[in-house]
Amino acid sequence: MPGYVTIIVEAEVQPGAVVPRHTHPGIESAYVLEGNLELPIEGQPTRTYKAGDFYQVPTGTPHAGGKASDGKIRFTATYVVEKGKPFASPA
Known about the structure:
The chain has a single domain (4-83), classed as Sandwich (Jelly Rolls), CATH 2.60.120. Helices cover 0% and strands 49% of the residues. It contains no helices and eight strands. The protein has a four-stranded antiparallel sheet, with no helix packed on it. A two-stranded antiparallel ribbon has the order 2-8. Strands 4-5 form a two-stranded antiparallel sheet.
C-alpha cells in the first residue's frame, strides 16, 4: 500500500521488565507465543493475554506492558505503519 510499510517482529520481554507506554503510527497485530502479558490499551479495559492469544492495538493508541511478569514473554507482531515516521514514540 503506498505510504505504508509492514514490519514483522518476534520480541521477548524478560522476567521483571515492563514495556514503557508508547504509540505506533499504524496498527499493531500480535500473537503471544509464550508467557502471560498484561496489556493496558488506552480506552479499553486492561486484559491479560496468554500463549495462543491474539490482540490488536489501533493506530496511535497509547499502550504498554502492565505488571512485570515472573516469566519470559515472547510474541510475534505485525505492524502496518506510515512510511518515514518513527516506529514507536513515547506516550
